[in-house]
Amino acid sequence: MANFGDYQLQIYLQGMLQGTTPEITTDLARLESQAAGKLSAEAMGYIVPSAGSGATARANQAAFERWRLVPRMLRGSTERDLSCTILGTAMPAPVLVAPIGVQTLAHPDGELATARAADALGLTYTHSTQASHAIEEIEARNKWFQLYYPTDPDVCLSFLQRAKAAGYAVLVVTLDTGTIGWRPADLDRGFLPFLKGEGLANYFSDPVFQSKLAKPIAEDPGAAVMQWAQMFPHVGLHWDDLSFLRDNWDGPIVLKGILHVEDAKLAAEHGVDGVIVSNHGGRQVDGAIAALDALPPIAEAVGEQLTVLFDSGVRTGADAAKALALGAKAVLLGRPLLYGLALAGQPGVDHVLRCFLADLDLTLALTSHANHRELNRDSVVRG
Ligand SMILES: Cc1cc2nc3c(=O)[nH]c(=O)nc-3n(C[C@H](O)[C@H](O)[C@H](O)COP(=O)(O)O)c2cc1C
Ligand SMILES: CCCCC(=O)C(=O)O
Q: Which residues are annotated as active site (predicted)?
């Protein structure tokens, strides 16, 4: 059996024997500056910055810095087993592709490339409601669908039915983006890709959405965009609205954007299957708690009843190991994948995923763990 960490030896050997070095850095925290050379100022402004002053994004990184792994010795295994089954989906490692909208901003192949790269490694790809490619275009064995619950229930139902028909296994309902946060980098440029018609593929391909328009989209795209702008903001969404999803989706449901332990308990009471502890990478509520700081109490309160997943600020194998030790069953990778996509399309995403998995695998090997399930609260200390 091969270990994900073997990618490290492969890179060394290519350097030593063929004189080639990776075109994309292996330091995932540095990807952002490398990708800056490839992306327009508008795309960088949309992808990189966080809401407001960026305090929450900084808090995410600071929280990872505060927690420290405490390595064990002499109990490891030559072969690590990172495989797991999360909500019925078999995974080779506890790592998923986070839902990220409008990926053609980063590369013309957009979500098609990201999904293919994930699929080639057997990883689960999560497709955003705000994607640049439609639900049906994604070819991946393991795919989850992320819902931004539209205010129009007919369109919502249509999304659920399309996702089910196209083979998506799990519904991820994002709760932290009832509307778009205060994002100065975009505001100062007056730039929002959706208002240019980008990232609306799921809406524009939807027959129910189309039926609500006075004219076909090709004849009046501006009106179609404004129709989306009416349906997207949903700050009035309530716990009771989840029953509509429960009634119309027969697979697992996961709530993304949970940070308060009471909301995690309410999630359990409302019969969902999992939560993603996340602050949306700091893109929504500036000043919000670091996602990693929210994780331990939530895992403690509902970890037995619900599948607890995590994202926001995960950049290294050590970050993933810390989140797993603090109670997450798996982590979702966000911006680094988009930087890999910007730099080289599908091979760029593949490289980023392989680096991340190798780093996690080597972290387990070096801390004497045979698999990630052995990580627990004793594996970390708060510095
Ligand atoms: C450009 C961009 C677009 C995103 N689009 C979505 C989306 O459509 N739906 C969603 O639930 N989360 C979306 N997210 C949030 C990610 O799923 C994830 O929570 C976040 O990227 C994690 O933070 P990190 O990138 O710092 O690791 C987006 C993030 C970025 C950077
Ligand atoms: C309308 C917002 C959808 C994309 C998103 O979630 C993000 O940019 O963070």
A: 280
